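Protocol step 4 of 6: structure prediction from sequence.
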Amino acid sequence: MVFPQYAAERVLDELRIVGVEDLQLLDVIALERGAVVMYESLDGAEARLVAVDRRAIITVSTLVENLRRRRFSVGHELGHLEMHLKHSRMFLCTGRDIDDWREQRTDPNLEQEANDFAATLLLPERFFAPLCKATEPSLDLIDEMAETFNVSLTATAIRYLKFCDEACAIVFSQGGHIKWFRSSGEFKRIGEDTHLFIDVRSKLDPITPAAAFFTGRAMQDRPKRIGASAWFEPGNYRSDATVLEQSWSMPNYDAVLTLLWIDDDIERDDSQWL
């Protein structure tokens, strides 16, 4: 098994990528790895890889208008080329495959591996990780990094969690319900002690800024302090515990992307059990 992170780092090393600006020439990177990138109409797919030996054609659907989305699709197919030719010589990938952020799977999943490869290639640890520790967590910071690396806000946010030292989580809500969330290492550590649990598929609490989008109310795009119980199921955290929430709307997806940051001690004292 070839781990996606190792495979992507190997490509960066072999091509001697020395700066973020080199990553902008993704079609050239693909060509150096043996793949020609084309943009054509595709039936029922967002991107496709067809390989013969180590030569390949990557095709991205012309219906994908967003440049950052196109770049990630190219990176996704490069992941298949670098790691998965023993499984198949052709991959036809839907938008759902390339959006496979919904959960952390423990079983082998080629599409999720291709996404991990793309994230590592487009947001390399060597350039990206230092920026994650530069200032306090916020969607504004993540958006700046997304602009720098020319990658989508969602992909950048998820990658940010890997290197952020703070207790943060990213939540994706659609149609007024939580669809998935991902969390940083520090968030997971605190969660083990306080039994923090975000109920995927549950309806958003009406008091959250994220819920405002789905009820037609004006959204506050700056961070807002809110009761922890608005996001977490009952657990071993203080009744007055709060988190910082920053939510941005994604109207094209009828969705909201939320950053949650635990910036204070929320664990309940033993005396509160008495």
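Step 5 (inspection) to follow. Strands lie at 35-40, 47-52, 55-61, 90-93, 167-174, 177-183, 224-227, 242-250, 255-262.
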